[in-house]
C-alpha cells in the first residue's frame, strides 16, 4: 500500500491488552505539544460518535447471542470507515499529527491471528476502507501476555475500567495475538518494537528517541 500524501503525520500505538498504550499516548501528546505540534489523540474502535457506539457493541462482555468472528471484523471496519473519513483524514489534511490508540494492525492481530479469519479478507477490507491511508509510524509495545493482563486486571480491580468481551478470552488467544503483532512488526519498517516490560520512564525515553527520528525525517 502506498503512503498517504497528507501534510500531517499518522502515528499508531499497537500491542496486547494492558501493555501501556493509553499511558504512553498521553506522554506522546504532551511531548509533541511541547515541540509546537498540533495533536489529535484518538482511538480504535471509536473516535467518533457512531464509531464509539459500534465500540460499545464490540466490547460489551455479554450479548444474548454470540458475536461471530466475521460480524466482529465487519464492525471493526465499519467503525474505522467512519473514523477515517470524519476524524483522521481531516486532521491530516490540516497538517496535524494524529496519534491513534490501535488501528488496522490490531485487526490483523486480533481477528486475523487471534480469530483465524483469512488474511486475504482482512487485506481486502483494509484496501476498501483505508485506500492509501497507512500509519507513518507504528509503535508496538510488546510484553508477555501475563504482564499486560496483570496490569489490566489491577486497573479493573481499582474499578477504573470494566472487563470487556476480549478480556474474557483464553490466554492462548492472546498468545496468538502477540505472535501476530511480532510477525507484522518483523515484516514492516514502519514498526518500532519497544520492550514494554521496562519501567515506564525507560519506555518513554525509547518512545522519545523514535519521535525525534520521525521529526528529523530519519525514519518515516
Ligand atoms: N480490537 C481493537 C480488535 O479486536 N480489533 C481491532 O481492530 C481493534 C482496533 C480494544 C479492544 O478491541 C480489540 C482489542 C482490544 O481488546 P482497548 O481499550 O484499546 O480495547 O485495549 P486494551 O489493550 O484493553 O487497552 P488498555 O487500556 O487495557 O491497555 P493499554 O492502553 O495498553 O494500557 P494502559 O496504558 O491503560 O496501562 C495499563 C496499566 O499499566 C500501567 C498503567 O499505569 C496502567 O495502570 N503501566 C505500567 N506499569 C508498569 N510499567 C510500565 N512500563 C507500565 N506501562 C503502563
Task: Characterise this structure.
The chain has about 220 residues and is of the alpha/beta class. It has a single domain, classed as Rossmann fold (3-Layer(aba) Sandwich), CATH 3.40.50.300. It has eight helices and five strands; from the N terminus they run βαβααβααβααβα. It has helices at about 20-35, 50-60, 70-95, 105-115, 120-130, 145-155, 170-185, 200-215, and strands spanning about 10-15, 40-45, 95-100, 135-140, 190-195. The chain has a five-stranded parallel sheet with strand order 2-3-1-4-5, sandwiched between helices. The longest helix has 25 residues, at about 70-95. Bound molecules: P1-(5'-adenosyl)P5-(5'-thymidyl)pentaphosphate. P1-(5'-adenosyl)P5-(5'-thymidyl)pentaphosphate binds near residues 20 and 106.
Brief overview:
With 220 residues, this protein is of the alpha/beta class. The chain has helices at 21-34, 49-59, 69-93, 104-114, 119-130, 145-157, 171-186, 200-216; strands at 9-15, 39-43, 97-101, 137-142, 191-195.
- The CATH architecture would be 3-Layer(aba) Sandwich
Order of helices and strands: EHEHHEHHEHHEH
Question: In CATH terms, what is the fold-level topology?
Answer: Rossmann fold
Q: Please count the helical segments.
A: 8
Q: State the helical fraction.
A: 40-55%
**Share in β-strands:** 5-15%
Features of the shown structure:
single chain, 220 residues, alpha/beta, Rossmann fold, five-stranded parallel sheet, 8 helices, 54% helix, binds P1-(5'-adenosyl)P5-(5'-thymidyl)pentaphosphate
Give the topology, please.
Blueprint: E1 9-15, H1 21-34, E2 39-43, H2 49-59, H3 69-93, E3 97-101, H4 104-114, H5 119-130, E4 137-142, H6 145-157, H7 171-186, E5 191-195, H8 200-216
Parallel strand pairs: 1-3, 1-4, 2-3, 4-5
Helix pairs in contact: 1-8, 2-3, 3-5, 4-7
The protein binds P1-(5'-adenosyl)P5-(5'-thymidyl)pentaphosphate (T5A).
P1-(5'-adenosyl)P5-(5'-thymidyl)pentaphosphate binds next to helix 1, helix 4, helix 6 and helix 8.
Amino acid at each position: 500500500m502506498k503512503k498517504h500524501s497528507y501534510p500531517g503525520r499518522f502515528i499508531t500505538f499497537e500491542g496486547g491488552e494492558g501493555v501501556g498504550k493509553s499511558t504512553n499516548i498521553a506522554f506522546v501528546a504532551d511531548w509533541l505539544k511541547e515541540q509546537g505540534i498540533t495533536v489529535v489523540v484518538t482511538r480504535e474502535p471509536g473516535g467518533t460518535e457512531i464509531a464509539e457506539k459500534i465500540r460499545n457493541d464490540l466490547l460489551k462482555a455479554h450479548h444474548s447471542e454470540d458475536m461471530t468472528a466475521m460480524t466482529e471484523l465487519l464492525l471493526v471496519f465499519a467503525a474505522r470507515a467512519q473514523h477515517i473519513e470524519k476524524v483522521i483524514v481531516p486532521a491530516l489534511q490540516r497538517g496535524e499529527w494524529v496519534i491513534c490508540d490501535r488501528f488496522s494492525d490490531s485487526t490483523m492481530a486480533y481477528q486475523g491471528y487471534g480469530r483465524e479469519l483469512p488474511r486475504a479478507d482482512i487485506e481486502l477490507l483494509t484496501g476498501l476502507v483505508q485506500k492509501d491511508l497507512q500509519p507513518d509510524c507504528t509503535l508496538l509495545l510488546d510484553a508477555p501476555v501475563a504482564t499486560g493482563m496483570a496490569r489490566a486486571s489491577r486497573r479493573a480491580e481499582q474499578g477504573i475500567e470494566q472487563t470487556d468481551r476480549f478480556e474474557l478470552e483464553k490466554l492462548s488467544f492472546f498468545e496468538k495475538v502477540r505472535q501476530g503483532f511480532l510477525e507484522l512488526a518483523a515484516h514492516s519498517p514502519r514498526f518500532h518494537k519497544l520492550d514494554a516490560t521496562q519501567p515506564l520512564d525507560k519506555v518513554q525515553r525509547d518512545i522519545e528517541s523514535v519521535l525525534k527520528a520521525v521529526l528529523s525525517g530519519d525514519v518515516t
